[in-house]
Write a structure and sequence with these properties.
2 copies of one chain form a homodimer. By secondary structure, chain A is of the alpha+beta class. The first copy, chain A, contains 23 helices and 13 strands. In chain A, helix 11 crosses helix 16 and helix 13 crosses helix 16. At the A-B interface, helix 5, strand 12, helix 10, helix 12 and helix 13 of A face helix 5, strand 12, helix 10, helix 12 and helix 13 of B. Chains A, B: Keywords: FAD, Fatty acid metabolism, Flavoprotein, Lipid metabolism, Oxidoreductase, Peroxisome.
Chain lengths: 672, 672
Amino acid sequence: MSENQSKVNPDLAMERAKCNFNITEVTHIIDGGENVTLQRKKFEDAALNDGASKDRIGEEHMSPKEKYENAIRKSCIYANIVKNDLANMTALESFGLNSPILRRTADAFFKEVSPFLLHLGMFVPTLMGQCTQEQQAYWLPRALDMQIIGTYAQTELGHGTFIRGLETTATYDPETEQFVMNSPTLTSYKWWAGGLAKTVNYCIVVAQLYTKGVCHGTHPFIVQIRDEETHMPLPGIKVGDIGPKLGFNTADNGFLGFENYRIPRENMMMKNAQVLKDGTYVKVARHGKATYGTMVFVRVILVNEAAFNLAKACTIAVRYSAIRRQCSPNPEGSELQVLDYTTQQHKLFICIATAHALQLNSIWLWKTFSDTLAAIKEGNVDTLPELHALSSCLKALSTADAASLIEQCRHACGGHGYMMSSGLPYLYAFVTATRTYEGDYTVLLLQTARFLVKAYEQVEAGKPLTPTVSYLSHAFTGKKLPWDSSPDGIIRSFQALAAGKLSSAVKSLRRRLESGLSHEQAWELSTIQLISAAEAHCRAVMSQTYKNEIVRLTENSSPNVKKVMQQLSTLYLYYWALERIGDLLLFTSISEDDIVVLRLRYEELLKEIRPNAVGLVDAFDLRDELLHSALGSYDGNVYERLMAEALKSPLNAEPVNQTFNTYLKPMMKGKL
Amino acid sequence: MSENQSKVNPDLAMERAKCNFNITEVTHIIDGGENVTLQRKKFEDAALNDGASKDRIGEEHMSPKEKYENAIRKSCIYANIVKNDLANMTALESFGLNSPILRRTADAFFKEVSPFLLHLGMFVPTLMGQCTQEQQAYWLPRALDMQIIGTYAQTELGHGTFIRGLETTATYDPETEQFVMNSPTLTSYKWWAGGLAKTVNYCIVVAQLYTKGVCHGTHPFIVQIRDEETHMPLPGIKVGDIGPKLGFNTADNGFLGFENYRIPRENMMMKNAQVLKDGTYVKVARHGKATYGTMVFVRVILVNEAAFNLAKACTIAVRYSAIRRQCSPNPEGSELQVLDYTTQQHKLFICIATAHALQLNSIWLWKTFSDTLAAIKEGNVDTLPELHALSSCLKALSTADAASLIEQCRHACGGHGYMMSSGLPYLYAFVTATRTYEGDYTVLLLQTARFLVKAYEQVEAGKPLTPTVSYLSHAFTGKKLPWDSSPDGIIRSFQALAAGKLSSAVKSLRRRLESGLSHEQAWELSTIQLISAAEAHCRAVMSQTYKNEIVRLTENSSPNVKKVMQQLSTLYLYYWALERIGDLLLFTSISEDDIVVLRLRYEELLKEIRPNAVGLVDAFDLRDELLHSALGSYDGNVYERLMAEALKSPLNAEPVNQTFNTYLKPMMKGKL
C-alpha cells in the first residue's frame, strides 16, 4: 500500500484525511468479527497476491465461447487454491461450506461466475441434505475432492416455479433394479442448470418417480451424464448449452434430455423416500419440511451476495463521485465534487446503509437458520414455517433492493457507469438474476403473505405468535399509531403499516369470499395487496434487525464508529419512511409538519454522513481485484484507468479495420 | 401469413379470437394515421422481405470486435436500402429526416445499434442547424449521400453535463487562416461519440474557441479525422475505441485527441458566430436559444424510441404470458396461462398503456416543437423556454419509465426473460443508455424545476403563464383539491400534486435563503424536493396529453376501439394515482374509502383489458424481425424457438470442449 499511496488521487486522499472514525473497526463489524476479517484477508492474500486471477485479455473482449473457456481455466486454478487452503480455514465452517469468503474471493477470478458455481453451491449441499449416510459416504468424498463435478437440474424448459408440473420421469424397472429416465416432451427438457452444458459429468435430476405403475411425485436422482475418462455424453443423454444470457456467460447453463436412460436404483437420493428392490415405495418417517434445508441455505447465501455486490457498487460509485467534478455554483469557482451534490448523496448513501442492512440481516438469518436446524434435530419443527416465510421475503426484498440500488449507483456514475470497465454492469447482471432464480420475487412474497394471513387468523383466535410476527398481536386496534420519529418509533410505524396492509388485504379477501368466490379465486384477486403487505412486513423485519444488530455490535465500539453506524441505520429508517409517506398517513398519525421535519432531518443526515462517505466504502475492504472497476479502484486514478482499459480493446490493435475496404469504402464511393 | 397461421400456438390463436376490437384501427392511431402505417409497411417490406437483416450467426455469439464488423457490413446494406427508397417516402418528412420509420426498421438489422447512428442522428442535423447556407451547400449533399460519414463529439473523458468545462481548444492562427486543435489534458479527450473509433472520417467537435488571445467559449467545428482514401487517422489525430459497454457494442464509441491539428477557418460552423480572416470574433445577431434546435429534436426522438422499445418489450412479455402456463388453482386442473394472474396483469398492462402514452406524447411534442420552430422563424421566441422545460422533463421521464417497465416485462418472463434470445436484455441496455445521454435524468428534471420556480414567481406577480403550466395559476389556494375519481378529476389531482410539491419546494428554498444561504446553496439543498416537483409536473402533462390525444384520435373510431383505448388511458391514471397515494392524501381530499374504491376499479380494469391484451400488442404491428425474440414471435412457438436458438450456440458444435483435456481432466485427476 505504502508505495501506491503517493499516487493516490488527491481528492480521494483528502476524503480519507477527513474520515473521523476507525475504518478497521467498521470492517470487523461488517465481516462478523475481527477473526473473520483476519481469515478473509489471509485467504485473499493466498488466492490473489500472485495475480493468478488476472486476465491478459479481459473477458469483456471475448465471445461467450471464449469467456467460457477462459472461465474453465481459471476455475481449475481457483479450485486448487481452495483445496490447498481449505484445510486451514476452520472458522469458515460457521457459515457453511459455501462460505462468503470463498465466494467473494472467487469474484476476483470471474467478472461473471464460475462454471463450478453449482457444484459447491447446490450439488454438494443437496448430497448432504438428501442422501442417506451410506450414499454420502460414497458420493461426498469424490465431490469434495472434485474428482467428479456436479450440478442440480430441476427447472425445465416449460416448468419453473410449479414443481408438481415437472415432466421428466424416472420409472423403476425391478427386473434390472434400475430407473429409466425419460424426457417425454420438448417442454420437459431440463433447462438452466449452471455448468450443465459442457462442464459437469454428474447431475442431480429432479423427476417424477413412477414405480409399480404409480406416480409418487418429484424426487431427486444422481445421474451420470458424461464419461469420466472421455467426457463424451453417455448414450441416451442429450445435453448442450442454452445460449447467451444477460449475465452468467462464463457459466455454461445447459439443457438436458433423456431417452430411456438407465441409472442404478441406488442413485435415487434416499434420505426422505426409498424404492426397494422389488419396487415398493417407502416414505421414510421424517418431517416433510426437512427438505427446506438446502433451499433456505441457498437463500441465506443470496441475501449475503446481494449485500456483497451492493457494497461493491457503492464502493465504485462513492469513490468515483469524490473524484468526478461537475459544474460550479458560481461562475468563477472550480467545479464541485459530484459527491457534494445533495441528489448524489440521496442516491448513494442509502446504498451504503442498505449494504449494511442486508449484510447484518444475512448473518442474523443464518443464525436463525442454524438454531432451527438444531431444533429440528431435537424433533422440534415448530419454527420451520416462520423460517420459510422469513427466508422467502428476505431473499425477495434483498435481491430486488440490491438490484435497483446497483442500477442507482450506475446512474450516479453517468455515462462512465455504462462502460463495462466501470464494473457496474456485471454487478447488475448478476444480482438481477438472483431476483428470479431460487424463487421469483412475486412468488416468494406470496408465500410470505400466506404465512401472514395465518398469523392474522391466529391473532383473531387469540393464539400466540412466533417472534417475527409477534408485533401483529396488538396491531389490529383500528386506531392510527401515534407518530414517533425516533428510530424505534419509525420501526413501530413500519410494523403498523405492515399490519394495516395485512388487515386491508384480509378484508378484501373476505369480501370476495362472501361474494361467493372460491378461496383460490379470492386469493388470486387479492394478490396485489397481499404482496404489498408481505413487502411491508419484510421491510419492518429488516429495519428492526438492522437497527438491533447495529446497537448490539457497536456496544463496545469507539464513539465515532458508534455514531456513524447509527447515522446510517437511522438514514435507512428515514429513507423508507419518506418512501412510504402515503402508508404512514393512512396508518399513523403523522402530520404534514412531521413530514417536513422528517425530510429536513433526512437531508441533514446526508450532510453529516458526507465527510465519512469514502471512509465508509473503504471499510467494506474490497480489494481492487474484486471490483474490476476503473472507476472504483483504491487509488482513484479513474481517467488513467479508463484510458488504459480502452486501449486494450482489440479494435485498437490496428489503425484501420478490415471492414473499411470490404464495405465502408465501396459504400461511400457508391460501388457497393 | 396464411401458411404460418396453421402453426400458430393454440393459446395465442385463442387469444386472438377473443379480441373484440379492430386491430388495424388501433395500429393507425399509434402510427399517427393510416397513411403513415401504409408508408411504414411499404418501407418495411422493401427493407426486410429479402431477409438481408438476418444473421447466419447471431451477434450474441460474437466478441465485441466481431459484432462491430458484422454491424458495418449490415449498416452498408441498410444505407443502400435507405438511399434507394428514401426518394419515394415524402410522408416521412413530417417527422424529420431521422424518421421513426427508418429507425424502427433499422432495429431489424441491429440488435444493438448501427455505427452510422450518429451520422443521420447528430452529424446531419447539426450541419443543418449550425452551418451557414454556404456551408450547408458544401457539406450536406456529401453527408446525405454518405460520401462522408460523420459523428458528433462533445463529451470529454472528464466533462459531460457542464459544457463550459470542456477543455479541447481551437485556437485561431490568422497567418495560415486555420484553427489549431489541441487536447491539453487526458481529461480533455473526446469520449463516447458513436462511430468515432473506426467508422467515421469526419467529426463535429465542440471546442473552446480562442482568437486574439481571448476565449469565446465552446463552438462546433467540422473536423476531418481520417484520410478519405486510406481511412488512416490523419497526423495529429489520436482516435480509438473506448471498449465494451453494457449495450451499443455494435457501435464503435470512440475517443479522440488532438496534437496541434489544423483545420481551415471555414470549418468552424458559422451560423451563430464567426471568426473573420484576421481573427476578429463576430457574434451573429441571433437569439442565443436558437441552438436548442438539435437538442430538442434529439429529445423528441428519444421519447419516441422509448415508446417504441417499450412496445417491443410488452409485445414479447404479453405474448409469452399467454403461452406460458404455471400452477393450477385446484389440484386437478390444468395449469393457468400466467397472463391470467392479477400480478402479471398489474406488471404488463401498465406497460401497454405507457407505450401508448409515450408514443402520443412524442408526436404531440414534435408538433409543439414544429410550431415553435415556425414561430422562431417569425421572430417569436417566447415559447422557447417552455419547450425546453417540456422536452427536458419528457425526455427524462419517458426514458426512465420505459427502462424500468422494460425490466418489469423481463421480470414478468421469469428465467427465460434473462436469455438473450428473449430479446429483452437488448431493449433495456438501449433504453437505459438514453436515460443518461443527451441530458441525464437528474440534470434535466432540475432544468424543468428552474422553469417551474419561475412560473411560481409569475403566479405570485399575477403574470400570465404559458400553456403547460397554466394550471398553476389557480393552484396555490392552500386548500386541498376535492377528490374526483373521473379521468379529468385525476388529472386535476396530478396538477394539484405538482403545484403542492412545487409550493413546498419553493418554501424550503426561501426558508434557506432567509437563513442566510446564497441562492446557489439554497437551491442545491432543495434539489430532492425540486426534482420531485418536476417529476410530478411532467406526470401531469403526460397524463393530460395522453388522455386528450386518445379522446381526439378515437373520435371517429369504432365503439370497441374507443372503449379499449379509453380503458388503457384510464388504467394509466389509476395506476399513477395508486402509486402516489401519499401525495394525494397530502394535496387532495381523497379518503381511505376513496382509495379502496380506486384500487377495486383498477383491479376491475385489469380484468376488462385482459381479453384484449394480445390484440393490443398485436396492434403495435411489430414484425418478428424487429423483436429478435424467441418469446415474442407472432406464431408463439416459444419453446421450439428457444431450443432452436440454443442449438446455434457455438459451444454446441462439438460434444467435448477443448478445455476438458487441458484443464478439467487434469484437475479432476489431481494432476493440474
